[in-house]
Amino acid sequence: MLPLSVLSSPTLSAASRLSDGSRHSDSGQPFPRTRSQSDFEIERPTKIASGISKRPSARRLQSDYAAEHALRASVSRLIAAKARPFTISGRIPLDPTALVLFFRSKSGITHSLDFPIDVDYDTPPALDVLIAACRPHQTAGINVYPDRDSLFYPPNLPLTATLEISNHPILEAVRNALFPNLPVGHYLITVRDRLEVMVGGCHMSPQSRTLRNDGRVATIVVTLPVHHRGGALIVRDSEGTEEKFFGGGGKAEEVEWTAFLAECEYEVETVQQGCRMSISFAVHLKTYGPAVDPLITPSENFLDLLSPVLSLSRGRKVAFYLTQEYGVNPADVLAESLVPHLKGSDSLLYHALKLYKLAPELHWAAGGYIWPIDRTVECGHDAADSPTTAAMMSFAAGYSSPSRRSVPMRPMSYYGEPEEDEAEIQRVEADLMRLRVEESGAVPLADAEIFILSDWAPGPMTKEKVYFSSNGELEKLVVNVLLVTYVP
């Protein structure tokens, strides 16, 4: 049975409404009721004593239009490069001595190559065997000096390295920098492409993107810790913009890597000294069905703990507070839009309810009020003729809202106690905030007949902020997220 909306839920008996917050119930309910937050949590800016502001100098220097034009042109190029990056680079914190390369030569003998390597000091015999097994790149073409072509290890021969991309957050960096708008439910995976070798005096001709037609979306090149001089990596996008990355085999405790989009071509300048070795990985985009389909399955123990809670809640609409932070503005997005982004314990609980064939919903909630599933949190702003502003400015004896409710206020005396006056101001502000919330479409949790399921001692809750103006100051209303479901 689909859950009913908070505005159209069936009317329950008086005993099924929210209790007054006592731990133990005398009405024979199967579990005690807990009271939700009845006070609004508002964050106010810290007031800073106003000082004498410095007046700007009346004298203005004569503008240097040439310098200003050059500055604006430089800023324009910077913003254009920032708007769509096509390559990034970084370093892997890895001890080079822990890196080993295993390969099989043409004769069928397996060799191992330990790192780091400095061919000017000592050339390992396995490196000579590896170079002898390599073949020149396809783009080398007819060359007067064939011994200066770049080489790659044949893909039909076994090759294994102890370096695993999945053990380092490289894919996360690639996703954040090159694919920031990747839809939820899509993931990046890597497949080892090839091992490339360039000895002293060799270079790599431009590798066109047409040579990599395996459906990849990006390429990652990891430079192995082999000392060399020269051999800068040049990456060029489809518009001809290029980036150059210099490296000398990496520093101690670090391995260099570079990633670029599939539409780019790359080349390597001439290696002046030493030997340059790198392993490239193809980055592919995969999806695992709809965005709301989980990749996790709650454990049997967790489902066993949830089962009695649902059994004792039959015929009721129950709710749990989410606990993770999502960094969204409840005034701009619906709470239901967080479903594909649920994480941690929130995702575990949501998908556990789905396994019980329930239809959980996400709602915004604050101060004992809950917003409908199709409403955002709109607190409004003070205007010169708004009733809330008039009430606070005049501090009159009453306040009239569109719902004809009033906010009674005790007359304040100049000789009154400061503590009493401050308490009266806080009470009036809370009443005015309550009126704003009700005008935005929120209803009390008691009227929505929703039971809040929580521990004896309330734990952490999701806290998102909504900005609003009050008395000329910018304040923030703290909003929580409720996971609501009807248990038939």
TrEMBL record:
Residues 36-45 have a biased composition (Basic and acidic residues). It comes from the Eukaryota. It comes from Hydnomerulius pinastri MD-312. Residues 15-45 are annotated as: Disordered. This is Uncharacterized protein. PANTHER family: FE2OG DIOXYGENASE DOMAIN-CONTAINING PROTEIN, MYND-TYPE DOMAIN-CONTAINING PROTEIN.
